[in-house]
Design brief:
single chain, 199 residues, alpha+beta, Glutaredoxin, two-stranded antiparallel ribbon, 6 helices, 18% strand, Redoxin domain-containing protein, Thioredoxin-like_sf
Length: 199
Amino acid sequence: MKLRNLVLAASAALLSLGLSAALQVGAPAPDFTVVDSKGNSHNLKDFAGKNVVLEWTNHDCPFVVKHYSGNMQALQAEMTAQDVVWLSVISSAPGKQGHVSGAKADELTASRNAVPTAVVFDESGVVGKAYDAKTTPHMYVIDKAGVLQYMGGIDSIPSAKVDDITKATPYFANAAKAVLAGNTPDPAVTKPYGCSVKY
């Protein structure tokens, strides 16, 4: 009985250690290496000294379509004009909804007048799982020191209706602007909404 209790206590301790090591704002963002639509490799460390936005995306998702009615492009333009690195991340696995080639990704970017720094691929899902990306869109802001400052939804109304964009609290935009101003976002964590990431 004592041995069983010791095993249970040890398991609980290991579980608590694992939970404390989970992704969290205020801690260093997980490092990653990805390849973009043009075949260039990017590592988070390459962007030291710059603010970074990660946007999980899937062009076939109605929630993504909602925000690419103009909202996402405006945010990309606003952020990249301030030297923010904006990576649109596609974690859709081959054969799954949203998976595209580099050429198709570039075609989508051009046809939508999108202006991310790069569209990057995470076919294995390693990066998405490291960031616990659940939906498309799912938004993250990393500051110049490589610290994760925001993770969550793009805004407060979980619908696929374009009309709701102007009615919603723009969680992501507010968080990004706070980080650019050297402040801590509030809230720093919100619930994302959209289609599930197709790992």
